[in-house]
Every structure is written in structure tokens, then in C-alpha cells.
Design a protein that fits this description.
By secondary structure, the chain is mainly β. It is 0% helix and 42% strand. The chain contains no helices and eleven strands. The protein has strands at residues 5-7, 10-12, 18-23, 33-39, 46-51, 62-64, 72-77, 82-87, 96-103, 120-121, 125-129. Strands 2, 4, 5, 6, 9, 10 and 11 form a seven-stranded mixed β-sheet that branches. It has a four-stranded antiparallel β-sheet with strand order 1-3-8-7, with no helix packed on it. A hairpin with a 4-residue loop joins β7 and β8 (82-87). It starts with a strand and ends with a strand.
């Protein structure tokens, strides 16, 4: 079974940046739709961004939640078979556990931001924004 693995979380000051990575072993992530979610204590899980599956001829489609649009950038490195979430201008309200999710059911021109749409989840990486 595909098991995404997140890395790159940590403690950062407000206004700082972090880059999260999502990778796996034994499967090719390039063939999967990937999404990033976060969940803070006492709050519901929030979909942040997703990138559709892609091949050598397409980059795939990308979507962002309004809460992170303009600050976060999702990208896929096909050579490394890794999906990244570059997070800039971080704020205290971005503090949460961040999760990578994958699913192989969706077409290359679309990706969902609903947590119920993804079958495979990582264990999460903590991001804390504090001075």
C-alpha cells in the first residue's frame, strides 16, 4: 500500500518560509494526485493545495485554498518523484500538523481538495510559527 512520507516541518518565525516534501517508496508518485492538508488542535482538517497526476507531456493542474493562495506553492519534481509545498510569509495561524495525501483515481486535469477524496495519507509533519 502506498504510504506518503512528509518531511520539512519545524519551528519558524512569523514571516519565514518552510518547504515541505512528500515522497514515498515502492510507488511512483508522479502517477498520483497529491494534496496537502493541515489540522490544528481543535480545528477541522483543511485542504490547502493539490496537484493532479501528470506525465512527461503535461504539468498537471494545481488548485489552492483561498487561505494560502499567494503564499504557498505546490510543485512536483518528476525526476525526484517528490511533491513539495513551499510555504512563504508564514503566520501564527499556519501552525498545524501538515499532511500529504495521495490518490490514483483522478484524471490529470483535475484534483479535489476534500479529505474524503484521498485514500492514502502520511503521518504528518508539525509546523509551528512562533517568535
Amino acid at each position: 500500500q502506498l504510504q506518503p512520507v512528509e518531511s520539512g516541518g519545524g519551528l519558524v518565525q512569523p514571516g519565514g518560509s518552510l518547504r515541505l516534501s512528500c515522497a514515498t517508496s515502492g510507488f511512483t508518485l508522479n502517477y498520483y494526485t497529491i494534496a496537502w492538508f493541515r489540522q490544528a488542535p481543535g480545528r477541522e482538517r483543511e485542504g490547502l493545495s493539490c496537484i493532479s497526476s501528470s506525465d512527461e507531456s503535461t504539468d498537471g493542474s494545481i488548485y489552492y485554498a483561498d487561505s494560502v493562495k499567494g503564499r504557498f506553492i505546490i510543485s512536483r519534481d518528476r525526476a525526484d518523484d517528490t511533491v513539495y509545498l513551499q510555504m512563504n510569509d508564514l503566520r501564527a495561524e499556519d501552525t498545524a500538523a501538515y499532511y500529504c495525501a495521495a490518490d490514483g483515481r483522478y484524471p490529470s486535469y483535475w484534483c479535489p481538495l476534500s479529505g474524503d477524496s484521498y485514500d492514502y495519507w502520511g503521518q504528518g509533519t508539525q509546523v509551528t510559527v512562533s517568535s
